[in-house]
Write a structure and sequence with these properties.
The strands form seven sheets. A six-stranded antiparallel beta sheet has the order 10-21-12-17-18-19, with no helix packed on it. The protein has a four-stranded antiparallel beta sheet with strand order 2-3-4-5. By secondary structure, the protein is mainly beta. The radius of gyration is 24 Å and the shape is elongated.
Length: 418
């Protein structure tokens, strides 16, 4: 069998510096404490058990209540819209629930909640009625995952303990089956003895799927796709899943700028791309020139005609790392596992003899789209079965009652040590 000729060219950029940048995606406007600026709810009331729930403007779940403490659960309200909004004081999950008489946030607590301590209405109603569950099997986790409004990862479950497995071909879980999710952090510790985040091989430590760019068809002409901007601080990653015949090669490019180190003081580089070739050898392409990476830091991906998943991530330190894995029975655990590691830019120098590091897709990455280009170099049109953009999770810091402190759950930092 002839080897696959698969080339991913990724045009990324920026040097990591001490300049302060935001370390998360732009967040929705937070709730104002002044009642004169109170925002309307985000959803209509929906029936839950013997009461009603809805999403507030900040994505937090609330229940129908007149005192912000006790939900009206006893089927005594047949139509919540008949109660004037000014007469309602919904009990809102999260910080408000924590500060109420209950002392827990409802989404993620180690203390027993309701229904034998495992099924609190906040996480169960939210997970059943409002969550969009995503298939994470592409990153080596055969579960349906999502996250709480506070940012904690959670898996779909019907018993609050074991995750629902993804069955190929099945649609995401619907609200016809009540979900009792397993939430990473305090709730996971209550059920399993650990928070899940501390183990880099645990599903809790997987990156978040930021954007599912769907399926595409690569042709001999460039196809442009818009994706969200990124900064090295959020550990961005791009994954593609495709089956490339031995007679074809695929080119993938993502636009950005790359600049010199702050200590160099030189003018910024213009647009430049770097990438990989799968097949005869692995190499970089910088400024249109081939740059062979240090042999000791790379391994070759076995050539075959099987479906493969290819990806690149940038660590918070600005190092770009490359991964490649087969799908199916030969898949090696998590996609970002060491077994799938191909190499990194850690030992590659730029034209100024500085380590090649990256900062962001653009100087104003939060407001400008990152442009991704696709094409094949030869042969017939090639279907791209899946393209994803991911980043590290930013989750609540346990033991922080206000719920303002966050911490990063990074997933590919081992490549900085390789």
């Amino acid at each position: 069998m002839r080897s696959i000729g698969l080339s991913t060219l990724l045009l990324l950029g920026g040097l990591w510096s001490s300049v302060a940048i935001a370390t998360s995606r732009p967040q929705p406007t937070q709730a104002a404490t002044d009642t004169t600026t109170k925002l309307p709810p985000k959803s209509e009331w929906r029936k839950w058990g013997g009461g009603w729930v809805r999403l507030e403007h900040d994505d937090n779940l609330s229940c129908l209540s007149r005192n912000a403490r006790h939900c009206l659960w006893n089927n005594d309200v047949t139509d919540p819209t008949l109660i004037p909004e000014q007469d309602l004081k919904p009990l809102v999950c999260g910080q408000a629930h924590q500060k109420s008489v209950w002392g827990i946030n409802g989404y993620n607590d180690q203390r027993a909640g309701e229904d034998n301590g495992d099924f609190h209405w906040c996480r169960s109603a939210y997970a059943t009625l409002f969550v969009k569950w995503k298939d994470y099997s592409v990153v080596g986790v055969d579960y349906w995952l999502s996250e709480t409004p506070a940012g904690d990862a959670m898996c779909h479950s019907t018993n609050g303990k074991t995750c629902t497995r993804v069955v190929p071909g099945d649609a995401p879980p619907s609200d016809s089956v009540i979900a009792h999710p397993l939430v990473c952090g305090a709730h996971h510790r209550r059920m399993w003895g650990t928070d899940g985040y501390s183990d880099p091989n645990h599903w809790c430590a997987t990156p978040k799927i930021d954007e599912d760019l769907g399926t595409h068809v690569a042709t001999s002409n460039w196809t442009r796709i818009e994706a969200a901007g990124w900064a090295a601080a959020i550990e961005p990653a791009m994954l593609i899943r495709a089956k490339v015949p031995a007679t074809q090669s695929l080119t993938l490019g993502a636009h950005a700028l790359r600049s010199r180190s702050a200590v160099d003081g030189g003018p910024p580089f213009q647009k430049a791309f770097f990438g990989l070739e799968f097949g005869k050898r692995l190499r970089f392409h910088l400024d249109g020139k081939d740059v062979v990476p240090p042999e000791e830091s790379w391994k070759k991906m076995a050539a075959s005609g099987d479906e493969v998943i290819l990806g690149m991530t940038v660590t918070p330190g600005g190092n770009a790392c490359f991964f490649g894995a087969k799908t199916g029975a030969e898949r090696a655990g998590h996609f970002f596992a060491k077994a799938n590691f191909l190499g990194s830019t850690l030992k590659i120098l730029d034209d100024a003899k500085h380590p090649l590091k990256f900062k962001a897709s653009s100087a104003n990455w939060r407001s400008v789209k990152s442009l991704v280009d696709l094409r094949i170099n030869d042969g017939d049109a090639l279907p791209i079965e899946q393209m994803l953009m991911l980043y590290a999770r930013q989750v609540p810091e346990e033991g922080d009652p206000p719920g303002k402190e966050k911490r990063w759950i990074h997933y590919a930092t081992d490549c900085d040590k390789t």
